[in-house]
Amino acid sequence: MPDQTPGDAAIDETALSEDDALYCAGCGHLITRGRWRIRRNGDHEHTVFNPAGIVYRVVCFKEAPGVAARGDPSGEFTWFKGYAWRIADCTECGLHLGWRFEGGDVFFGLVRTNLIQRED
Ligand code: JO2
After folding, report:
1. Among 3, 30, 34, 91, which residue's CB has the most CB atoms within a 10 Å radius?
2. Is the CB of 108 under 6 A from ligand 1?
């Protein structure tokens, strides 16, 4: 996997179903909460790949205060019909955590392995 994926600190199903804080795997910054998960196309999570051939397990959230969107919105290769994406980085360390999707509304698709349950 690429250097932006910390890898083995993935959140588990139990944590995702609770009202747990979720932190950046790179620096421990608070990113979002399990209770802010939403379904898109019938599921909270989606296995997707980008034009570079990288496979991601993406979790959808309605809010992610710990990320900042970067670059112009693009509709190319979008995983969610009707939504354009921008890259979403950790506001603290800059790790690429996922994407901010903008359509009629806004949501965040964050890479599961880049989120951890504890700061330490
Ligand atoms: C979001 C990235 C992506 C795409 C990407 C960098 C460059 C390009 C990146 N479908 N975007 C989505 N690009 C995702 C995608 O909905 O493919 O992974 O197309 O030039 O985020 O690193």
Report:
1. 34
2. no
